[in-house]
DNA sequence: ATGGTCGTTGGACGA
């Protein structure tokens, strides 16, 4: 099974990219973030005609998460509360073939001095509680999405200069580590040991992709029982180089089920 | 090595 995560930065703006990329990469499951669309306007048919089941929750202009799956959903849980009233546009948890999948769009955090940054840190704390209360460490669980944090020095293009920036800040590292400590393995890092593999390049940096000025802020993490069954993991940089790209690109992992 | 560019909107704001 191939599973992917992609911050599409508006699903409607990225529909052509997705229609091109999905048949090409042929992932079985895709977690999408920043769909930026209300549920009534979600272009579900485009994905159904490509052979995917789809679960989604979003809002006007901001946030929004979705999961595409070639297999039926045995359970769909929206937000922290399950109904979508509490962060339904940022958290979507499903069950597919005995596999638990949690897709998150973690708050970006704006600036380390801001309230939004504190909100981001609290979000990680709430997420740890969510995992503790809803799952067991022995579960076959995959947590993926836009974490909006580059965990290690090799995950940013200039760790010295960027340390303390939003997305690469010691307090974010601590908050993320506390969630990881519950029982996650960074699946991508299990397979790719060297740096310079990024999932995000700021639109504002001219030729940022070619110049390697990226960040690895999108992740596929899993509990031991699933991480041990991962065969490979990679970042597909190609869609970031196409016409009208997202500022992120998909990260994928293949799991033997 | 960012003082910028997208996306959603219909003037800013978020990223």
Topology:
Layout: E1 2-7, H1 15-25, E2 29-33, H2 44-48, E3 53-57, E4 65-69, E5 75-78, E6 91-96, E7 99-105, H3 115-134, E8 141-146, H4 159-162, H5 170-183, E9 185-186, H6 187-191, E10 218-222, H7 224-227, E11 230-235, E12 251-255
Parallel strand pairs: 1-2, 7-8
Antiparallel strand pairs: 1-12, 2-4, 3-4, 5-6, 6-7, 8-10, 9-10, 11-12
The structure holds one DNA strand of 15 nucleotides.
Question: Can you put this structure into words, describing what you see?
Answer:
This protein is α+β, with helices and mostly antiparallel strands and 257 residues long. It has one domain: Endonuclease/exonuclease/phosphatase (Deoxyribonuclease I, Chain A, 4-Layer Sandwich). It is built from seven helices and twelve strands. The protein has helices at 15-25, 44-48, 115-134, 159-162, 170-183, 187-191, 224-227, and strands at 2-7, 29-33, 53-57, 65-69, 75-78, 91-96, 99-105, 141-146, 185-186, 218-222, 230-235, 251-255. The strands form two sheets. A six-stranded mixed sheet has the order 3-4-2-1-12-11. A six-stranded mixed sheet has the order 5-6-7-8-10-9. Strand 1, helix 1 (15-25) and strand 2 form a beta-alpha-beta unit. The protein is globular and about 45 Å long. The mean pLDDT is 98. It binds one DNA strand of 15 nucleotides through loops.
């Amino acid at each position: 099974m191939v599973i992917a995560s992609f911050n599409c930065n508006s699903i409607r703006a990225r529909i052509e990219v997705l229609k091109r990329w999905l048949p090409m990469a042929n992932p079985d499951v895709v977690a999408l973030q920043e769909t930026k669309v209300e549920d009534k306007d979600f272009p579900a048919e485009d994905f159904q005609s490509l052979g995917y089941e789809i679960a989604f929750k979003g809002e006007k202009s901001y946030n929004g998460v979705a999961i595409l799956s070639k297999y039926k959903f045995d359970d769909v849980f929206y937000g922290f509360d399950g109904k979508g009233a509490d962060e339904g546009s940022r958290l979507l948890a499903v069950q597919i073939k005995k596999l638990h999948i949690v897709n998150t769009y973690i708050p970006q955090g704006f600036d380390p001095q801001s309230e939004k940054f504190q909100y981001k840190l609290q979000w990680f704390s709430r997420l740890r509680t969510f995992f503790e209360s809803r799952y067991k460490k022995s579960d076959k669980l995959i947590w993926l999405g836009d974490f909006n944090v580059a965990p290690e020095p090799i995950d940013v293009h200039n760790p010295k200069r960027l340390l303390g920036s939003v997305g690469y800040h010691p307090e974010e590292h601590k908050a993320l580590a506390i969630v990881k400590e519950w029982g996650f393995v960074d699946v991508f890092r299990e397979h790719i040991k060297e740096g310079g593999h990024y999932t995000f390049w700021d639109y504002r940096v001219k030729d940022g992709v070619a110049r390697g000025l990226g960040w690895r802020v999108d992740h596929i993490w899993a509990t031991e029982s699933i991480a041990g069954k991962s065969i490979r993991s990679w970042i597909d940089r190609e869609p970031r180089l196409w016409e009208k790209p997202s500022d992120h690109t998909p990260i994928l992992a293949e799991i033997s089920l």
